[in-house]
């Protein structure tokens, strides 16, 4: 009896400690029944209906309690406001709660976010014309390797794994050069490193009911006690980088001003003022690359897989897309250029529409890093508060996309000639404002090149000749798990550049 009373007493104390305490003039808190648990169940298993009911009753912003923590929800009206308030919000403060790289890498990547953004902006998106030919070659190489000629229909499983390897090879080329990206272990590392980590990081944050930091540390334990899947990938990166770095250092010494730098990120790292050629810190270089891999590969691979499923699921649009692609292919004699891909406005519109339908309810959560933040309607939230953007409210805005906003309308952007990489108030798949994803130009170009080559080389359809359904994981999605059926297109063959 004493033990039972003690347990009840401790439970009451815990509930009291964890009871939400709101500051003055906060957004309304949606009522809930179960202490601590709050709205977690509705958030995970009935996300859209739950959020829309709250929006209808309370307006925006409003507060809910998920995993024992008060979280502020914004939608179409206030998402642009949050995205523009650069000094008050930081997306990576939320990211690190679920992917605590600062605890498992030797160097904290979140302390140099500005450097990572600059790297991607200048060395990836800023050099698309330099990367273009290699991107094209890498895509064709992967299609031959993973899909083949398909003279007879071939069933291909795990499309997301395929697209991860396609983007993995291309990003490896852009990061550490064409020589290193020829090694299969390097491509494999770029392709699956994030997936290996996600086996640990996608543990539901139930320990956050006690304290958020407890969840961060618990999911980091396997990495800290030597069970880290990162170690083998990091060793591969170091082993493949080392001879390249040593060769370049030697060439710089012997050639002096005649040295011709490479157009890859490794060269950029070596050009930094803190790079010590006499004592190269390979662990640091590998950690920089690992962060770029985690931040880019899985998300781009996922959107590429979704794009392919969207195409394969909708045969009514195949002829128009093929006609546009084959016309451009004939005009350039099979030697596609950077300018040629930009002429395909239907392909671009299809890509933008696929991204609009990616399926995630929340895309770019932010945390308040200022002492507080006051919305334009007067509501105030404190430092440390997570703000989740109900992005679907923007992406399916009826005022922007019509009463049938949830319909897949692949060519609706053709008359507007709006690039798939251009962000606006209702197209927030890449965030928005000054901190919109700096790699979106590369990602969109990669997606279009990938689908362009698929269209010219194969006929693709779903197993059941219907629209493939994405896999819902709470408020987020993964690409469909079903296979796609590929068969070589007879009308035309594409040449490798």
From TrEMBL:
GO terms for molecular function: heme binding; iron ion binding; monooxygenase activity; oxidoreductase activity, acting on paired donors, with incorporation or reduction of molecular oxygen. InterPro entries: Cyt_P450, Cyt_P450_CS, Cyt_P450_E_grp-IV, Cyt_P450_sf. Keywords: Heme, Iron, Metal-binding, Monooxygenase, Oxidoreductase, Signal. Heme binds at residue 437. Its cofactor is heme. It holds the Pfam family p450. Residues 1-23 form the signal peptide. It comes from the Eukaryota. The keyword Iron-sulfur does not apply. PANTHER family: CYTOCHROME P450. Belongs to the cytochrome P450 family. This is Cytochrome P450. The lineage of its organism: Eukaryota, Fungi, Fungi incertae sedis, Mucoromycota, Glomeromycotina.
